[in-house]
TrEMBL record:
The entry's keywords: Coiled coil, Methyltransferase, Restriction system, S-adenosyl-L-methionine, Transferase
Organism whose genome encodes this protein: Bacillus yapensis
Pfam families reported for this sequence: HsdM_N, N6_Mtase
Top-level taxonomy: Bacteria, Bacillati, Bacillota, Bacilli, Bacillales
Highest taxon listed in the record's lineage: Bacteria
Entry similarity comment: Belongs to the N(4)/N(6)-methyltransferase family.
Protein name: site-specific DNA-methyltransferase (adenine-specific)
Keyword Lipoprotein: no
Methyltransferase keyword on record: yes
Occurrences of domain DNA methylase adenine-specific (ranges): 176-488
Class of the enzyme per the UniProt entry, highest EC level: transferase
Length: 853
């Protein structure tokens, strides 16, 4: 069985290997298009099998039965499948037929072209033609493109390799668990990162999508969602993921995309994620030039949606090619037209026009929309006066592959209470750097969403801007006007530099130490004059006193007990996940609960704890729960899979099996806990090898000392660099040496060291091989108790200690500040002046003693 993570890795590795020098933004159309055609073929075969009531059979047998049925029933069979799917693929045009031709040596690129063209023709006459029309148009999948190969043979070879990449994937089975959709979305994201600036047209980074989607999903009673610049559809799908399963069943998806190839990608992406054709309405067109979707019965209102999400092109120039006027219903609310030079507000107003009265809109735009003047200033004022702007979220720079500028997410609502302030969040400093990109971690996303939901104020992070304050700022929403970044730099104290001592006000500012162990801190300093103190003991001793204080230990113990109960609870739940378990919901429950647990303790950053659990899911649980849900926990624990490794390079590059690995139980843990004696024996031999190498090294050094016994006996067998002995010369020298002499004894010693090292090295290799084989066999017979113990360590082995560390993090941070203050003011200016005078005096004395001869 293959997991979603393994599929993602395999397909992306395959894409990199097969595309060669072809641009990622272009190659994605071929790879994702053919992957989708495999899905359509698999769905056709599955539908034929189910409607025909056929028993279980191999894929080749099913294709053979389908071929016979087509010959017998013809159009009747086509219509039967089309009534179920909205399309059909004839046997001769199936993906499986391409594979058969490849295996028999009869493959031709033209067959692929014919198949894609035939699909276009068959759906053109059906009622569902709009759902599938143009998916494989020659403008998107041009198999004559020389980028695929300079000649027909090269193109044929590359296309065959790409077709084979999906050969063993059952797309229907993978779609049921959303594995296929996740893999498709992953590939889109990877292609976007590889495409750089070209990616902006079709992809919103996952972490930005998450912020927007999680906020939009808080809207109650969502029945329809809309993205006017839909790209690959990732925003709509992310929003779907955060809605209840019951809501998803009846959800209507709307989107519009200007780029035809990307428009096709959107439809494929939604279909692969299980969105039914009748539930999605995607249009290929320019969102701004002509309003869409329109309501014929209410032309001045437009179709209204419960949630609108969008990531439009930033500051699009010359957007108003259609010559639109302010009389356009979309722009009437603004009173003026957005400037032709920047289309940001044009997109925002379009989305707002289609937002339902109780809906939520989330749009990502450049920061300029918050403060630019002229027409944009007028629009911003009108939106604020109408009370439509709900929240402003400033994000870090360099989140997107296509621009390094910082962006802002604006949340708009039409049903805000009169006088309700605008929430402003500055999350621009909350990120980590991964390669060239800045990334929001799961904890950063959670903090943004929680702050939005709770409408909370936090110094340096969030602010509730009242209408009065916004008016004072002349409707300028630039974030620094409302949120001042916290300056953690502690000002220098002139008196402390001159006279020494740490300012008492700096000690008072150590809020966490003062509120938890103020007495211990007070006993660790002594006043040297009014308002200034010095440490009465080394900082290491102070740290030890504080961290071992009974109150801190009690807090740590409390977290330890809570964390242990938490992990025990979820270990039992995870062991018992089944096919119908909602793994996404389980993950969210775990993340919410850890925040609730940690919020009971003061001064602990609950989002750091949130990140610990999020990392456990990312690193192990996503993979393992998928496997456990399809089998059962103990069966999965006793299952092993081939360990495939890549060998060779270039044309000789290949995958080979190198033993076995546990499906969920790591070989390393089995080795560590069940074969400790064997490991200890191997380590003992390795230690002896190191001792021998040390003895040999000592002999080498001794052989370099002139006239020493070692130099006389062994100097002649050092290698050219003089850093090691030539082993092949030892026996020859022994033959010439007289028994009983120092030279003979040293050579014999050297011979034995080499022999012992060789023997031990062989023994270690044999032991390691035997241990590796034993571990691989042990997987198959692990007891339930062993699986419990090993998997508990794998999933939760470090979590309790990590949670306890959260207690010490803020304390250690303030202790480091205390150390810095001590270092800063230890050397006073007067002491430095005195040292300088002493050095000058010593120098003058030295000069006077110099005698010129």
């Amino acid at each position: 069985m293959i997991t979603s993570e393994e599929i993602k890795r395999r397909l992306w590795d395959g894409a990199n290997e097969l595309r060669g020098s072809m641009d990622a933004s272009r190659y994605k159309d071929y790879m994702l298009g053919l992957m989708f055609y495999k899905f359509l073929s698999d769905k056709t075969l599955e539908t034929f099998k189910v409607t025909s009531g056929l028993r279980q059979m191999t894929e080749s047998e099913l294709v053979e039965e389908y071929t016979k049925a087509k010959a017998e029933y013809g159009e009747q069979l086509d219509k039967m499948i089309q009534n179920v799917l909205g399309y059909y693929i004839s046997p001769e045009y199936l993906y499986q037929t391409w594979l058969k031709d490849i295996n028999s040596g009869d493959f031709e690129v033209q067959k692929v072209t014919d198949s894609l063209n035939n699909f276009e023709r068959t759906i053109a006459v059906s009622g569902d033609s709009d759902d599938f029309k143009g998916l494989f148009s020659s403008s998107t999948l041009d198999l004559t493109d020389t980028a695929l190969g300079s000649n027909l043979n090269e193109r044929s070879k590359n296309i065959k390799s790409l077709i084979l990449l999906f050969a063993d994937l059952n797309m229907v089975a993978l779609q049921k668990g959303d594995v296929l959709g996740d893999a498709y979305e992953y590939l889109i994201g990877q292609f976007a990162m590889e495409s750089g600036k070209k990616a902006g047209e079709f992809y919103t980074p996952r972490q930005v999508s998450e912020v927007m989607a999680q906020i939009a999903a808080k809207t109650s009673d969502i029945k329809s969602i809309y993205d006017p610049t839909v790209g690959s559809g990732s925003l709509l799908l992310t929003l779907k993921k955060h809605l209840d399963k019951d809501v998803q069943k009846n959800l209507s998806y709307y989107g519009q995309e200007k780029n035809t190839a990307t428009y096709n990608l959107t439809r494929m992406n939604l279909l692969l994620h299980g969105v039914r054709p009748e539930k999605m309405t995607i249009k290929n067109g320019d969102t701004l030039s002509q309003d869409w979707p329109e309501d014929p019965d209410r032309p001045n209102e437009g179709v209204q949606f419960d949630a609108v999400v969008m990531n439009p092109p930033y500051s699009a120039k010359n957007w108003n090619k259609a010559g639109l006027k302010v009389s356009d219903p979309r722009f009437e609310v603004a009173g003026v037209m957005p400037p032709d030079s920047k289309g940001d507000f044009a997109f925002l107003l379009h989305g707002l026009f289609h937002l339902g009265q109780n809906g939520t809109m989330a749009i990502v735009l450049p920061h300029g929309v918050l403060f630019r003047g002229s027409a944009e200033g007028v629009i911003r004022k009108r939106l604020l006066d109408k009370n439509y702007i709900d929240t402003i979220i400033g994000l870090p720079s360099n989140l997107f592959t296509n621009t390094g500028i910082p962006v802002v997410v604006i949340i708009l609502k039409k049903n805000r209470k009169i006088g309700e302030p605008v929430l402003i969040i500055d999350a621009s400093r909350s990120f980590i750097k991964v390669g060239k990109q800045n990334i929001l971690q799961e904890k950063d996303i959670a903090k943004i969403v929680d702050t939005y939901v709770e409408r909370r104020k936090e110094k340096g992070y969030s602010h509730l801007a009242t209408r009065e304050v916004i008016l004072q700022n002349d409707y300028n929403l630039n974030i620094p006007r409302y949120i001042e970044a916290i300056d953690e730099e502690i000002p220098q104290d002139v008196d402390a530099h001159l006279l020494g001592g740490i300012p008492q006000k700096n000690i008072d500012d150590l809020k966490i130490l003062q509120s938890t162990v103020s007495d211990v801190l007070g006993q660790s300093v002594k006043e040297i004059r009014e308002g200034y103190v010095e440490l009465s003991k080394p900082i290491e001793e102070i740290s030890n006193d504080i961290l071992s204080d009974s109150r801190i230990v009690r807090i740590s113990k409390g977290i330890e007990n809570k964390a242990k109960s938490y992990t025990d609870k979820y270990f039992d739940i995870i062991r018992n996940v089944g096919k119908n378990s909602n793994l996404t919901q389980l993950m969210e429950e775990m993340l919410v609960e850890i925040k609730e647990i940690l919020s009971e303790f003061h001064y602990i950053d609950v989002y750091d704890g949130y990140q610990i659990v999020a990392e456990i899911w990312k690193n192990t649980l996503i993979h393992d729960t998928e496997i456990v849900s399809l089998r059962d926990f103990y069966t999965a624990g006793r299952t092993r899979e081939p360990n495939m490794v890549t060998k060779g390079t270039g044309n000789n590059k290949r995958e080979e099996q190198d033993g076995w690995v546990g499906s969920i139980v790591p070989n390393e843990l089995i080795e560590k806990h069940l074969y400790s004696a064997e490991i200890e024996e191997i380590e003992s031999k390795r230690d002896r090898i190191q001792e021998i190498e040390k003895e040999l090294s000592d002999l080498v050094e001794a052989a370099k000392v002139e006239d020493s016994d070692e130099a006389n006996a062994l100097g002649g067998i050092l290698n050219e660099t003089g850093e090691a002995f030539e082993t092949k010369l030892v026996k020859a020298e022994l033959k010439n040496a007289s028994k009983g002499t120092a030279e003979y004894n040293l050579l014999k010693k050297l011979e034995k060291l080499f022999a012992d090292k060789s023997e031990l090295s062989k023994a270690v290799r044999a032991d390691e091989k035997a241990l590796k084989e034993a571990v691989q066999e042990r997987i198959l017979i692990l007891t339930n108790e062993e699986i419990d113990s090993l998997m508990y360590e794998k999933w939760f082995g470090n979590i309790v200690h990590a949670m306890i560390d959260l207690v010490e993090v803020p304390l250690k941070k303030e202790l480091s500040i205390l150390q810095m203050l001590h270092n800063r003011y230890t050397d006073t200016l007067s002491a430095i002046d005195e040292e300088s005078r002493d050095l000058e005096s010593a120098f003058e004395a030295l000069m006077s003693e110099l005698v010129v001869r």
